[in-house]
Amino acid sequence: MLACNPHAAPLSRRDCLRLGLAGTALMGGLSGSPTHAAEGAVLAAGPADVMADYQRFLNQRDVLQLNDFGGPYSRRDVVEVVLFHQALHRGGWRTALKFQDMPSVERLLRELGTGHVISSSTSYWSEDISGAEASVQLSQAVIGDGEFEAGFYTVETNTRAMSAKNLKDLQALSGLSNQTWLVDWRNLKRLGIQAQHVTNWELMPKMVAAGRADFLLAPFQATPDLSLQVGNVRLLPIPGVKIGMQGTRHYLISKVHPEAQKLQAALNAGLQQLRQQGVIRKAYMQSGFLNSKVSDWLRL
Question: Please, what is the average pLDDT of the chain?
Answer without folding.
Answer: 87
